[in-house]
Amino acid sequence: MMESFFRGDYAAAPTNFPAMLLGLLLAFAGGHAIAWVYMLTHSGLSYSRAFVNSLIVIPTLVAMVMNVLANNLVTAFGLMAVFAIVRFRNILRDTLDTSYILVVIVIGMAAGTGKFSTAIIGCLLTVGIMVYLWATAFGARQRYDLIVNLHWSRPPAELPDLNKLLFRHSFRTVCASQRAHEGFEGTDLSYRLLLRDPGRMEQLLMELRGMQGVTRVTGLKAEEESEI
Questions:
Q1: Where in the chain is the domain with CATH 3.30.70.260?
Q2: pTM score > 0.85 for this model?
Q3: What is the C-alpha to C-alpha distance for residues 49 and 23, in angstroms, rounded to an integer?
């Protein structure tokens, strides 16, 4: 039965299974390398785990697309038409959502062009990659627990008093934004904190609100970095 399955492709060009599998795995490994470099070199707040995951999934999908097309111009135009229709009817803001749409289109193309074994192998490999990314939380970067925004009305030279309070509650404190107003009206500050005890978050905010020279204190819990 398995022999019949592997010989059951009715496409114009025969399927080279070792080459196809090697190509898919090589694309997966290459996407991994690019994703690691992106994670190491990215700076700023516009980080997206979904985008990192798509850097791994999309190369594998492209390799599968090329295997399905197999120099077939008609299939290539059909693939572009189907994807254009789906993309036109749906506004996808997440790159990983786009990857899911693309994979189901490619699997449908493979089945529709008679590459049945290619559709099954590609589907199983893609599902395995998606589950792997979800189970390992690949691409997640927990850099901080809390974002604190406040207004500092005391002179900038007295900021060490504020830093002492923050250091008492956090392992790492990063001042992400500092905007001074003209005429000594104070400074707007934004901090990113990796807390020693996330359960004492409210206590930290209460101490900040009770500190002399500190007003307009707001805290935002950061589950993980996401696109802004």
A1: 146-221
A2: no
A3: 25
